[in-house]
Predict the 3D structure of the following.
Amino acid sequence: MVVEIAYELPYEDWGWKVGLYVALIGISGGAYLWGYAADVRSRNADSQAHGQVARYGYLTGLLGMAIGPPIMLTHLATPLRAMILPTTMTNFASWMTIGAYFIGGFVPGVLLMFVWAAFGSQRPHSPSAVDGSAKATTDGGRDVASDGDAAKAATGGGTADGVRGIVGRIGFLGLLDDLADRTRPSETARLVIGGVVALFAAGVVLYSAMALGSGSMERVPLWDKTYLVPVQLLSGLGAGLFVAVGLSALESRRVGTPLRNYSLIAAGLLAASLIAIVATVTLLPGESETAAASVDNMLTTYAGLFLGVALVGGIALPIALSIGAAFGQRADSLPENAVVASYAAAAALVVVGKIALALTYLMAAEFTTLPLPV
């Protein structure tokens, strides 16, 4: 005699907080990787344009870590114990352990890289650092253009822009500037440290997939690593870059060639993730009956969330906005503020879409029944 044990659906066991966590850490790791790539690129190209993407890539990575893991901790029965997982768990065959170490190494690293890039009188990518001039940016946060009024900068004139402006308004700009200048290593050493942090960031992006897909595919076929890992990696990298581009455009209020190219790269990554999702929906149902039922849930019960919010709103529309803005700008048919608005809207949409995609993978998934002999 055999009894089949039917488990609750994964979503009922894990809840929406797990979906939000998985989405945000994927965006966070992807944004950092592109921020670091732009940081390295800035040494041999337009430093300010690439440096802006670097700064906001780091900021996006930091914000994702500041929101996602704390929300996940509130889902756990013993959050304080979970906070010290890297020091208490040694089972490196488990992605819970591996992921904890990746996050534990990534968080302090992204914090350092952001502070070093965004603060200090000699921060990289600022106009004074690029020009090699003695004009320090002491205006309370605003970068003075290379042909700007140095006296105005020295006397504190002007208004504060971007993240430095926000920090300045709450009174911490001087403190962070001083901290950055005191701790920032040489430029070569800074980029070497950033490269080490990038390894942890890559691990975090991978963990965003393996947090769901590390178990046996026979238990939850929808989370088959063959299909899930490409979806999570490509969407995390694409969404992270889109957010960095959108924030950069909002700060500068203009879009040059480097920013436009980054946006098109992000659109290409999201298009590749869409192909991976289509492959999942098309091929995975042939793996098992449970897989077919899960995909059917995605396309019927959760069609609004999956097809409407995740695919159309979170992938197709950002791609269309990116390509449309690029061609419109090149043809001089779109004003600058419309291009900026397009990139900002794309950034917001990809975050919502990435969260919707993770929630769909949780809510649509079904456990395979477990037969037990009695």
The mean pLDDT is 83. The chain is about 70% helix and 0% strand.
